[in-house]
Write a structure and sequence with these properties.
Blueprint (H helix, E strand, L loop, with lengths): L1 E6 L2 E6 L7 H8 L18 E4 L2 E4 L12 E3 L12 H8 L9 H16 L17 H7 L10 H12 L1
Helix pairs in contact: 2-5
The structure holds FE2/S2 (inorganic) cluster.
InterPro entries: 2Fe-2S-bd, 2Fe-2S-bd_dom_sf, 2Fe-2S_ferredoxin-like_sf, 2Fe-2S_ferredoxin-type, 2Fe2S_fd_BS, Aldehyde_Oxdr_Iron-Sulfur, Beta-grasp_dom_sf
Protein name: 2Fe-2S iron-sulfur cluster-binding protein
Keywords: Iron, Metal-binding, Oxidoreductase
Length: 165
């Protein structure tokens, strides 16, 4: 079965022999986009977060064949070593990582989260409608799907807050 995915603005036609191939494995193994990481491979860690049609998802939990025609953004589409995105720069300034394995997923999740804030999604802490105050609790709750074994959470929150302000 052929599946057309537009990844970081470039269309790719993938021949998928096994419909059980996850989007994560298709990105990493077929397109060599290894910035998206495999941590748990069952939806617990967020290392595999990518943005599909504007929404963040765990790419290990979805099948490549389900994404015909979808627009997918991976960490490779966010910034390059010579031209880092503001969130990537902020993570560096605030030491928002140690081993760095979770960082692509953190950056992708935070990127989508900031867009959710711009769209006025309700508070994840209080449930209030309208633009929520970007408290540390609000950031932590919105980023709760992304785990960091090195426990850099306070610095990650600082980096995200800086970019949001
Ligand atoms: Fe997908 Fe952990 S690898 S959530």
């Amino acid at each position: 079965m052929d599946v057309t995915l537009t990844v970081n603005g470039t269309p790719h036609v993938l021949e998928i022999d096994d419909p059980r191939v996850s989007l994560l494995d298709a990105l990493r193994q077929r397109l060599d986009l290894t910035g998206t990481k495999k941590g748990c491979d069952h939806g617990q860690c967020g290392a595999c977060t990518v943005i599909v049609n504007g929404r963040r998802i765990n790419s290990c939990l979805t099948l490549a064949v389900m994404h015909e025609g979808d627009e997918i953004t991976t960490i490779e589409g966010i910034g390059t070593p010579g031209d880092l995105a503001p969130l990537q720069q902020a993570f560096i300034r605030h030491d928002g990582f140690q081993c760095g394995y979770c960082t692509p997923g953190q950056i992708m999740s935070a990127t989508a989260m900031l867009e959710e804030l711009r769209q006025g999604w309700p508070s994840q802490v209080t449930g209030d409608l309208g633009q929520p105050d970007l408290t540390d609790d609000e950031i932590r709750e919105r980023m709760s799907g992304n785990l960091c074994r090195c426990s850099c959470y306070p610095n990650i929150v600082d980096a995200i807050r800086e970019v949001a302000e």
